[in-house]
Structures are given as structure tokens and as C-alpha cells.
């Protein structure tokens, strides 16, 4: 439910049609367009609606939210997703998990392929790119 209070009252003659357009410029994974299309609008000149819209605690929260949204808009961003692999000196240690429980660490493991399959390319760093090349390599028996 939402309450919209006009800056100035307007007179709507009986039988006239009032058109209200709502737009959402924030793209998120939700059903906003579906909900907005299915909604309906009730108009009221009841002053209690105005009083309810201006409860001091809610007004302060809306002002704080607007201020935070403005601050967020000031943060420079890029529309290109960027993913960088950690440098080898920052690589974390990987362990086997005893019985699959992440709290019970077993032996330390290193990046490699199973001994029954072809090894990773020689002379290249062992990282995700090497794994990707190994996966699509014509010599890989897993690739159709």
C-alpha cells in the first residue's frame, strides 16, 4: 500500500478521468511490473490519510533513505563486470573436508587434474584459465 499526497489539491469534475503513471527506474529481480499493472487506485480527501503519511518517524526514515540513495549515486561504478583472480601470494589454502563437513579439515590439496585424466598444460600457471583451456582441449577425453 502506498499513499501519495499532492502538493496542491486538485478539483476533479464528476465523470472525469484521472490518469496516474508510476515509473520504477531501478532494475531489480522482482515482480514490480506485474504488481503495478494489476493494482488499482483509490482516491480520498480524508485528512486522516494526510496525517498518516506525515508521521514524524516515517518522514525521518524517508529523508534518511533519500540521503543514502544520493550518496550511493555518487559512487563511481562501471557496467562491465570485472573479476580478477587473486595473486598467488594471496591464494588461500584448500583442504579436504572430512566427511564433507567444512569445519573438519583434512589434508591440504593443490590444484591438479585427476591422475586418470590428462594433466593441465605444461609451462602455464595453474589457475582458472589453465583449467578452462584444459576443459576444451581436443586431447581432453571429457570433451565430446
**Helix and strand composition category:** mainly alpha
| Number of beta-strand segments | 2
Low-confidence stretches: none
Element-level helix/strand string:
HHHEEH
* Mean of pLDDT: 80
Gyration radius, in Å: 29 Å
User: How many helix segments?
Assistant: 4
Give the proportion of residues in helices.
Answer: 25-40%
Determine the N-to-C terminus distance: 55 Å
User: How would you sum up the major sheet?
Assistant: 2 strands, antiparallel
Shape: elongated
Across the major sheet, the strand order is: 1-2
DSSP strand (E) fraction?
5-15%
Any overview of this molecule?
The chain has about 140 residues and is mostly helical. The chain has 4 helices and 2 strands, in the order αααββα. The chain has helices spanning about 30-40, 45-55, 55-75, 130-135, and strands spanning about 95, 105-110. A two-stranded antiparallel sheet has the order 1-2. The radius of gyration is 29 Å and the shape is elongated. The two termini are about 55 Å apart. About 0% of the residues are buried. The model has no long low-confidence stretch (mean pLDDT about 80).
